[in-house]
Design goal:
binds flavin-adenine dinucleotide; 9-stranded mixed sheet; two-stranded antiparallel sheet; Rossmann fold; alpha/beta
């Protein structure tokens, strides 16, 4: 089974993130990059499916040079190899361009199953799985909290407000996963050492056969037109309970039209 896990390096959510005034893009240079948290679940699921059914796990990441650190971490968790799409011409790509670039590489490397996190913690669009599936002409099964592969089909439990739906699709397919699906493993010392020798293919736009005119900020079909800082948090109202706390709480909720 040829499993490809898409991994994005994102700015550490524990750090203060700002948008750049000149082009409304996230300032990524001043913040440490980490693997998008949901992608760790995607990697873990890829490894588990590979352990159950054989084959290999390839990590695919599009991003500037520092994304190599996240790729290396994914390899130290146990993935077999990686492809890193890196080119200055990709900077400023929107979701359409990102999906075009990743789909082009996926067509080149081949796949039975593509696994993604359900969303990134920086742009949080949650659209990449659907866009990839459409571009690749394969089914998408999204928001999986369980994945089972049986011969030529993949069956997932699709997380929903009311519980879950069971959805089956023929392989090859694209799956996005939620954090309930598993508990990602920590890289072992042996894994970290082994990762240093695992193959990482670095592709430029030209190597991948991607038209530079179709990616990057210049080709973006979407744009951030304005942004503003969130207003500082107001001090809350403190109500002293003098035996009538419940009434006061109810009055407050009624005044806010919550009840
Ligand atoms: C005008 C504009 C400029 C932008 N400039 C930049 C920029 O310079 N740099 C930048 O990083 N973003 C930039 N973005 C945001 C970028 O478009 C999105 O990050 C990208 O489209 C993916 O959307 P998402 O992260 O919300 O993906 P989601 O759909 O939320 O992600 C779902 C999953 O897709 C996979 N995935 C997402 N992105 C990648 C990737 N790059 N490589 C591998 N797997 C991936 C992961 O598995 C992830 O969990 C820009 C957006 C706009 C509108």
């Amino acid at each position: 089974m040829n499993i490809v896990v898409c991994v994005k390096q994102v700015p550490d959510t524990a750090m203060e993130r700002t948008l750049r005034a000149e082009d409304s893009r996230l300032d990524r240079a001043s913040i440490d990059g980490v693997i998008n948290e949901l992608d760790e679940y995607a990697i873990e699921e890829g490894l588990r499916q590979c352990e159950a059914h054989g084959g290999e796990v390839t990590i695919l990441s599009m991003g500037p040079e520092p994304a190599a650190d996240s790729i290396r971490k994914a390899l130290s968790m146990g993935a077999d190899k990686a492809v890193h799409l890196v080119d200055d011409g990709l900077a400023g790509s929107d979701a359409l361009a990102t999906s075009l670039a990743l789909a082009t590489v996926l067509q080149r490397i081949g796949f039975d199953l593509v696994i993604l996190g359900s969303e990134s913690t920086d742009a949080r669009m949650g659209v990449l799985a659907a866009m990839l599936a459409e571009r690749l002409g394969v089914p998408q099964v999204s928001l999986a909290s369980q994945v089972e592969i049986d011969g030529q089909a993949v069956t997932i439990r699709r997380q929903a407000d009311y519980g879950y739906d069971t959805v089956t699709a023929a392989l090859p397919a694209v799956v996005s996963v939620v954090e309930k699906i598993n508990e990602p493993r920590y890289p072992s010392f042996k894994g970290i050492m082994a990762a240093k020798k695992k193959p990482v293919e670095t592709l430029s736009l030209a190597d991948a056969g991607i038209d530079p005119a179709q990616v990057g900020l210049g080709a973006a079909a979407t744009e951030v037109v304005s942004f503003a800082s969130r207003p500082p948090r107001q001090a809350g109202t403190t109500v002293k309970d003098e035996g009538d706390g419940g009434v006061k709480a109810a009055e407050y909720l009624a005044a806010q039209k919550f009840i």
